[in-house]
Amino acid sequence: MTVGCTIVARNYLPYAHVLADSWRRHHRGLPLYVLVIDAEDGDVTEADGLEVLAPSVLGLPDRELARMGAIYNAPELTTALKAHLLRHLLEDGADVVIFVDSDVDLHTELTVVVPLAEQRGIVLSPCLLQPLPIDGLSPSETDLGVTGLYSSGLIAVGPAGRPFLDWWADRVRRDCLFSDSGGMHADQRWLDFVPSCFDHAILRDPGVNVSHWNLHERRIGHQDGRYTVNGGPLRAFHFSGYDPRVPGVVSPASWQRPVRFDVAPGSALQHLCLDYGARLAQAGYAEARSTSYGYAASAAGTTLGTWQRRVYRELLIAAEALGEDVPDPFDAARSDEFERLIGRPGASPLLSDMAKARLADLSIAIAIAQARSGAPGRLLLATLKVIRRLPGYRRGWMPHPLPSDRIALEYETAA
């Protein structure tokens, strides 16, 4: 049997409802499972047509799930649990599992991937089907080199893909950050290794994985009541970075340069965007935005922001390398121990001098990020950029709030 799945935090449930509606229209009789990463077992429900799963079904030890919830924010944990969900559904009897990001809108069936997944084990969806022009617009080849060549927002697996899922789950266990400077784009850049390491199929259907990174090569039209791409059927539009509060804009502000396409007034693309925004609003987007992330704070009430999560990740990786133990933030019995540890990480014997230096850099980076709108922050940032380029300056510093990277840690392990 073929099944579909997606993953959300509680505040993203409206996206899951809109996806489920489009899934049911085009995949009658095929279930769509929704993993809610911060759901408790008592929250699991099939109300409103959603077949909701709690993380407890994935087979991860409670302590490991808590640790992943501590080092990852909501988007990172959502992607870090993807391989586990796909593996669980295969083990539960599915012949093919199709994963679709919750912010994907389906316009026809995706079962075109089923025979490919059965035969090859893995079906990837490339972000591009044609080489990019060198025109100074976004995205560039460098941009996509940072984010990854294949979209993790739509992937299908069959039983032969099990070794890949084991490998992927292991890699994202601690390395699933959204960190350009750390060489990571959550779970997605790991997919660049698939073509050389695993049997696979690449789905070159222009109607799949349509998004702001490839709209320059995929012309959206509307004919006979259906949306089209380059004259063929639109199957899946990925509204990555879409803000329903600005429903006519499809391109996120994260691109550093102008994009290669326009959302022309009255165009099929604009109607597509406005319609999706309206359905999200009807599904309760505005109300759900205030829902807090289940792993937002420690047992003592300390907000787990970028600094706390990255510090804890450094300490956790060091402890695992040395065979030591650190408390998780959500264990009330060890709450005081965690708060002391996170409050003064430099005093921990777990970390090498290199790791402590990187944490010092991270604290500066976060301070700059918080003050970057002011002249002092801009001056300090410019100064550090110059220092980084001085001859003989060996320890790199990157002006990014997420520079943590386990490869750079040098632990002093006993011989």
Provide a compact summary of the structure.
The chain has 415 residues and is of the alpha/beta class. 35% of the residues lie in helices and 13% in strands. It is globular and about 65 Å long.
Give structural attributes.
3-stranded antiparallel β-sheet, 2 domains, 35% helix, alpha/beta, 14 helices, 415 residues, 14 strands, Spore Coat Polysaccharide Biosynthesis Protein SpsA, Chain A, 7-stranded mixed β-sheet
Question: What does this protein look like?
Answer:
This protein has 415 residues and is α/β, with parallel strands linked by helices. It folds into 2 domains: 2-288, Spore Coat Polysaccharide Biosynthesis Protein SpsA, Chain A; 306-408, no CATH class. The protein contains 14 helices and 14 strands. It has helices at 13-26, 62-71, 74-80, 82-91, 114-120, 141-147, 162-171, 194-197, 268-282, 285-288, 306-322, 335-343, 353-371, 375-388; strands spanning 2-8, 32-36, 51-53, 96-100, 104-106, 122-126, 150-157, 178-179, 184-185, 201-202, 220-223, 226-229, 232-233, 236-238. The strands form 4 sheets. A 7-stranded mixed beta sheet has the order 3-2-1-4-7-6-10, with helices on both faces. The longest helix is centred in the C-terminal third of the chain and has 19 residues, at 353-371. It is globular, with a radius of gyration of 22 Å. The chain starts with a strand and ends in a 27-residue tail after the last helix.
